[in-house]
Amino acid sequence: MKSNSIGYVVSVNGNHIDIILDNDVLSDIIVYEDSIIRIGQVGGLIKIPIGYTSLIGIITAINLNEKIKDEQTTNYSSFRHADILLLGEISGKRFEKGVTQFPLTKDKVYMLTNEELEIIHLMDRNVYPLRIGQLSSNDSIEIMLDMNKLISRHSIIIGATGTGKSNATTVILKEIAKDNDLKSSRIFVIDPHGEYTRVLKEDSKIFRIKSFEDRNTENLLVPYWALDFNSLLELFYNNLNETQLSYIAELILERKVESATAKGELGLQLTIDTAYPYNLQKLWYELDRKERRTLKDRQANTEDLVHEGDWRLLKSAKFNPPGFGSSPPFIDQSRKGILSFLDSIRSKMLDPRFRFLFHPEDYTPDEKGLVKKDLDDLLFEWFGHDKKITIIDLSNIPSYTHHILVGTILNIVYNSLTFMESPVNGKDYPMLFVLEEAHTYFSNSSDKKNVARGIIERISKEGRKYGAGLMMITQRPSEIGDTIISQMGTIMCLRLNNPKDKSYVNGAIDSDMDSITKTISSLRTGEAILIGESVKVPCKVKYYLENEGFSSDPLVSEEWKKKKPNKDLYSEMLKVSRNTKGVR
Q1: Is 48 in contact with 106 (CB distance < 8 Å)?
Q2: Tens digit of each residue's pLDDT (9 = 90 or more) over 208-252
Q3: Out of 318, 323, 330, 509, which residue is the most buried by the measure of CB atoms under 10 Å away?
């Protein structure tokens, strides 16, 4: 093909134009300047020269229009039409979004040369580019993201299982991690399944509940006193009424005030939700004792005690059982009826899986509520290391507590960014929150308080002004909802098949791009449609393959050819299972 002309304009309606492809363009695949180029593809780019400027548009639909030539015969002519959405202009060697002029009918339409594609996709000098892959239709064109807009304006990576979401995320994070100039990068990854622990171990500090033999990670500690009141209650069996809730809340607040007094921090404006140390074991013992005690004499309030318990060992005090009728010992009428709730607290505090929470080493309050390490130490441990990525690996933590812990962890970190008078606020030291399997932290149930959902919504809506960026990775955008998705400045959509999920994606994207997003069911593995503020124009990208076999399914036909595991391997399995549940 000698010319790169492919058709002409037949109608103009604002940013939408209609073109007819030339009859000599017989195939969607042509050879031009020794390159194989696909034309007439939904998502492909075209240009319309106007003077020294070229208008750039994207193909949103292709159709065939047939017109009868002669009513007496069945002869007809066919015209292939393409719907075009104008995106911007090339002037000289620079591409800018937005259109200042419009074409006229009969104006010629051309395909883009490689040089012009490079001009469009090349980031400006004032942009910090992240190289993530190649243009699907032309592997000689590298696709880059604007890092500043990717992080500050939020992003979401969507795709069905096995389509390459984790690989795409890894490519982006490694691109940041390998840049030595970004020495103060702070990327905070919440990893529910431990996927990134393996592939990002060279670039990150990993915190998890670990076994004795785990030398590559740090022990994850999240002190219970950092949880807000509702999150703490959600960990336990809880059918308390308002009176009982108020009673417990008042006592917890009193313990926090006592701890502050013992530390010499008088005049603090503490609330029930302030992350301040207090001794839960001692509080449990005092409440438990009051619920169980019997009295020899009601007037003198004399206890009928058999033996003292031990708050350190979570052993209850024992009292003689109440007498019959009006005979002593008597039931303490001031008890609140919360014994089952207290039993639930004791059960959780004795559960070795929750040692990281209720016995967090140097973060555990002593008898006076004083701690050796406070939240500043915790934040420094998480972010004061020489790595650019911090991973919180939740794989050894019961899944039903994930949303509570994630909400608590995000609250601790995000709140530290919002105090603008602080020397480590988010404006001076921005943070990127990366949430793998983000849909698991959302609940469609209106009667269930979800602390994770609350803080994620808060970051998505106000995080930009505090230097907090959000990147969510999910296979179920419908469970997150279009309200949150609409807050995402960049959408990276890999293959999706579920109609409900596809409709949520379409609802969050400009309606002009509907026809492009309708192609997401036919994307190849590792291929994505990029739309949003971190890319100059919508495009289809083939991500670099960072980790071949990442999250891949086992090849059953090969694995079943192996020799069956012997007893020693099952013994090793048992040892691993018992050593990775938080027992220290």
Answers
A1: no
A2: 986 545 667 889 999 999 999 988 998 898 889 999 999 999 999
A3: 509
122, 152, 168 — which closes off a domain? Answer: 122
On the 0-12 / 13-18 / 19+ scale of CB atoms within 10 A, 221 is buried
Domain assignment present for 129:
no
User: For all residues of the chain together, what is the average pLDDT?
Assistant: 86
In this structure, are 280 and 309 located in the same domain? yes
More confident residue, 284 or 395: 284
Contact 382, 179 (CB under 8 A): no
pLDDT of residue 553: 63
- List the beta strands (DSSP E) in 159-200: 187-191
Asked whether residue 110 falls in the same domain as residue 155, the answer is: no
Res 554 pLDDT > 70: no
127 within some domain = no
Tell me the residue type at 372. K
Q: In this predicted model, what pLDDT tens digit does every residue of 392-429 receive, in sequence order?
A: 999 888 888 888 899 999 999 999 999 888 888 999 99
Q: Say whether both 512 and 386 belong to one domain.
A: yes
Residue 27 burial (CB count, 10 A):
10
Task: Determine the Cα–Cα distance for residues 69 and 332; give it in Å rounded to an integer.
Answer: 101
Question: From the CB of residue 420, how many other CB atoms can be counted at a distance below 10 Å?
Answer: 12
Q: Left, alpha or beta for 369 (phi > 0: left; psi -120 to 50: alpha)? A: left
User: Taking 80 as the threshold, does the pLDDT of residue 483 lie above it?
Assistant: no
Q: Say yes or no: 89 and 171 in one domain.
A: no
317 in the same domain as 376? no
Give 45-93 pLDDT, tens digit per residue. 999 999 889 999 998 888 877 654 545 545 555 678 889 999 999 998 8
Under a CB-based contact definition with an 8 Å cutoff, are residues 37 and 1 in contact?
Answer: no
Q: How large is the average pLDDT for residues 241-266? A: 94
Shared domain for 153 and 84, answered yes or no, is no
Integer Cα distance of 308 and 491 in angstroms? 61
Residue 367 lies in a domain: no
* Alpha carbons 521 and 535: distance in angstroms, whole number: 22
pTM here?
Answer: 0.86
Give the structural domain span for 307: 230-352
**117 lies in the same domain as 149:** no
Q: Are 369 and 277 in contact (CB under 8 A)?
A: yes
- Tell me the pLDDT tens digit for each residue of 524-533: 999 999 999 9
Q: Kindly state whether residues 454 and 532 are assigned to the same domain.
A: yes
Domain for residue 321, yes or no?
A: yes
